[in-house]
Design a protein that fits this description.
The chain is mostly helical. It has a single domain, classed as Four Helix Bundle (Hemerythrin (Met), subunit A) (Up-down Bundle), CATH 1.20.120.1760. It has helices at residues 6-22, 27-45, 51-62, 64-74, 80-106, 117-143, 155-171, 175-206. The protein is flat and about 50 Å long. The relative contact order is 0.13.
């Protein structure tokens, strides 16, 4: 759903990306810095309950995922290695965001509005696992010569939803915003996995030779 806004953000960050290229910065470096920034911020701030500041910190690095692709394309440095690195480190960053919440809810004293903290530990873990599974289904399908893009909760949707609502939950001291989002993402991610499986099954039945 949110992929339609990718070109808008690409245009916003293009001047900075062009500057980095002129300074000799490689797209792969941006990929690494972005992943380290997102992962470090999520695993440092979220376990401590600093959700608003943590989200601001993470967001500052999230856009590297747009910049590195633009830099690779505009400089003619696109490669299979770059695509592989980008996809692999995306999984690391996504997992770190939910891992930060898992650690937060695992600690005594975690505040909740909708139930026991352990429930949201499990929901955060479910979002982590299912998020990676949705990405795996697409990668595996493409490895078999098919496609599995789509579903109600693609990566951008999941990432924006959890960051926005976690940030707002910290800003307004309303844990319920974060908790409702975890419920929604857990179910949406599960549905997305089945949607992608159905997409692949349809292609496999139509073209058994794939």
């Amino acid at each position: 759903m949110l992929e339609r806004f990718r070109q808008f953000w690409t245009n916003v960050w293009a001047p900075l990306a062009d500057l980095l290229l002129r300074l000799g910065v490689k797209p792969d470096w941006v990929t690494w810095v972005g992943t380290i920034g997102v992962s470090g911020g999520a695993l440092w701030f979220y376990p401590r309950g600093h959700f608003f500041v943590g989200t601001l910190f993470i967001t500052a690095f999230v856009f590297s995922d747009i910049m590195d692709g633009y830099m690779a394309r505009s400089s003619g440095q696109s490669s299979k290695w770059g695509a592989f690195l980008d996809s692999s480190l995306d999984r690391v960053a996504d997992a770190a965001v939910f891992a930060g919440l898992v650690i937060y809810y695992s600690r005594s004293g975690a505040e909740t509005d909708l139930g026991d903290a352990s429930l949201y530990l499990y929901l955060s873990l479910a979002c982590l696992v299912l998020g990676n599974l949705t990405s795996y289904t697409r990668a595996r399908a493409e490895g078999l010569g098919m496609t599995a893009k789509g579903g109600i909760a693609e990566r951008a949707d999941r990432l924006v939803a959890i960051l926005v609502m976690t940030g707002l939950s910290g800003l307004f001291d309303l844990p319920v915003l974060r908790e409702i989002t975890l419920w929604a993402l857990a179910f949406a991610s599960l549905i997305t996995v089945f949607q992608r499986m159905a997409i692949v099954h349809k292609q496999a039945v139509r073209s058994p030779e794939l």
